[in-house]
Amino acid sequence: DIQMTQSPSSLSASVGDRVTITCQASQDISNYLNWYQQKPGKAPNLLIYDASNLETGVPSRFSGSGSGTDFTFTISSLQPEDIATYYCQQYDYFPLTFGGGTKVEIK
Amino acid sequence: QVQLVESGGGVVQPGRSLRLSCVASGFTFSNYGMHWVRQAPGKGLEWVVVISYDGSNKYYADSVKGRFTISRDNSKNTLYLQMNSLRPEDTAVYYCAKLRSDYGLYGSFDFWGQGTLVTVSS
Prior knowledge:
The structure holds two protein chains of two kinds.
Chain A: E1 4-7, E2 10-13, E3 19-25, E4 33-38, E5 45-49, E6 53-54, E7 62-67, E8 70-75, E9 84-90, E10 97-98, E11 102-106
Parallel strand pairs in A: 2-11
Antiparallel strand pairs in A: 1-3, 3-8, 4-5, 4-9, 5-6, 7-8, 9-10, 9-11
Chain B: E1 3-7, E2 10-12, E3 18-25, E4 34-39, E5 45-51, E6 58-60, E7 68-73, E8 78-83, E9 92-99, E10 109-112, E11 116-120
Parallel strand pairs in B: 2-11
Antiparallel strand pairs in B: 1-3, 3-8, 4-5, 4-9, 5-6, 7-8, 9-10, 9-11
């Protein structure tokens, strides 16, 4: 199985800060990586697909990059409504696997 | 608009069975592979199973293989998850999720249901 190592597991930042989350795959997954946002009590919401493509309707302050084994998710200017847990997910091989999540809080 | 509505969750004793349903609307259900993803209380997301658009292909996580069965009825726009021999570690919110691209088996999940809670406890 492909292991997805996400870091940090949590972070605290101020409104307006740039926030970066990394996700490392245990083997090359090309660009077969997605990023989701999950707010408490809600289903996940797709933000970025294929490593760097912004899903329709998602604010442009969210972005993704990377390929192979190393990926980055960035919020360019943290907003109060961005408080959530973020997950990466690979879909190069079954079983599909998710990172452990990064909980983002406001400082 | 796309809607996925799960039902069938509840409290069940270890070793018993439960069947979840996911009714889809707002898109051509028969064109899309569908997945179940679960989330144990306070934990992360775990992929469970996928079924192809026509039901001909299915892949399971090792943790549920041999105990869970996915199926679909395209005439009813409904996805199912038959869960047998349930264990306490199956306790989770179960989400059905639609693939972003049609006719595929994997990719990104652009719509999710609201989830249904399954609790396995004596």
